[in-house]
C-alpha cells in the first residue's frame, strides 16, 4: 500500500502538530509514504525524521500551479491512497486512480469534500455529524489521535503555589479570557499559557492586573517539560472538537479541568478522569481549579484514571495500528 499525505495547514496548530507525529509514526511502522506540505520548516522536520517530503505553495483557489504540480507528484508516485488533511489540501487534490481519504478535525463544510471516497473524523461526534449532513455512514470513519509525552525534566517554576498550564492557539474559541478571569478569582493560582494567535495582545491586557501570576509562553515545542512542571492542565475552550491537550495531560499523568465543550465533554468522565465545568463560567472554573489545588488525593486519583484512559485508546501503537488497517482496507 503506497500512501501520499498532504497537509496545507498553518505553521502552528494542534492538527498540524499531530500530522507531524502521525507521519513520523507511520514511517517508523514501515508505511511506504510520500508527504506533501506547505511550509519549509515542517518539511525540514519531517525530512530529519526520515519521512520523504515535497513542498507546494497551496496558495488557494487561484493557485493553479499548485494543482498542476500536485498532479505531477501523484502521477510520479502512483499512490494507492491519498490522505488529505483539512479543506485546503483536499480542495487542491486532483482526481486520479487512487482512493481519496480526507481527515477532518472539526465540523467543516462538507461541500469541499464531495470528491472524496472516505472521510475520517478524529471524534465520534464529528463522524455522527457527517452522517447528519448526508454523508454516507459506511464511508465515515472514527480514528482517534494519539499523543506521545516522553519523560521530561521539570522547568523552573514558582514554588509553594498551584501552577496550571493551558495550551492552544490564542483565539476566542479557546476562551483564555475566561481562564484569566478565573485566575483573578483564585488569587493563589499561577498560570502558564503556551500558544500564539490573534488574541494575544487583548489577553495580555486582560491579564495585566495579575502581574507575574500569568505568563504567556508563546508557541512551545516542549509540551512534555511544561506538563512535567505544572500541577494541572486546564482546557477552558468554548469550542473544541477534540481536546487533544486533555489526552496529552492524561499521558503525562496530570489532572485535568476542562469546560464541557463538545470534545472534552466526550473525553472526560466528570469526577473520574477529570473535572468538567460549564462553558464560559469563570467562577465554576476557578472553583474546580481550587478544588484540585487543595485536594491532592483527588488530583492523584484523576491523574491515574486519566492515564488509564490514555493507555486504553490513545497510544501511538494502538492508533497507528488502527490507521494502517483502515488504509490497507480501503486500498483493497
Explain what you see.
This protein has 13 helices and 13 strands. The chain has helices at residues 14-28, 40-48, 64-77, 86-92, 124-132, 176-184, 200-207, 223-229, 244-252, 262-267, 282-294, 296-313, 316-331; strands at 2-7, 32-37, 53-55, 81-85, 99-104, 118-121, 140-142, 163-167, 190-194, 214-218, 232-235, 256-259, 275-277. Helix 9 (244-252) crosses helix 12 (296-313). The radius of gyration is 20 Å and the shape is elongated. The model has no long low-confidence stretch (mean pLDDT 96).
In CATH, the topology of the largest domain is named Rossmann fold
- Cα separation of the termini: 9 Å
| Strand coverage percent | 15-25%
Q: Give a count of the beta strands, DSSP E runs of length 2 or more.
A: 13
Supply the CATH class of the largest domain.
Answer: Alpha Beta
What CATH architecture of the largest domain would you give? 3-Layer(aba) Sandwich
The residue-averaged pLDDT reads 96
Order of helices and strands: EHEHEHEHEEHEEHEHEHEHEHEHHH
Helix content: 40-55%
The helix/strand class is alpha/beta
Describe the strand arrangement of the main beta sheet, using strand numbers.
3-2-1-4-5-6-7
Broad shape? elongated
Identify low-pLDDT runs. Answer: none
> What's the name of the CATH homologous superfamily of the largest domain?
Glycogen Phosphorylase B
